[in-house]
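User: Okay, second chain of the day. Same drill as before: sequence in, structure tokens out.
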Amino acid sequence: MKLVPKVTVLQTVTTLDVPTERILSAALETPLKGCFIIGEDDNGELYFSSSFADGGTVLWWMEKAKLALLGVE
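Assistant: Same drill. Structure tokens below.
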């Protein structure tokens, strides 16, 4: 999906789903040290990929994300 230059993407919380391409494009433009992707494919199957080799590191980041979603952190 190509965004028109005059359209501003708001950095806000929404109750609407956001297109996958928009999320991935934003991540590519951010200087990340590492990342993982969790998703669902067209068949409803789990998709998971990580740049971190250590599963404990992935779990630690998942827990940090969970706390942020809960508003605890």
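The two ends are 33 Å apart (CA to CA).

User: Thanks, on to the next one.
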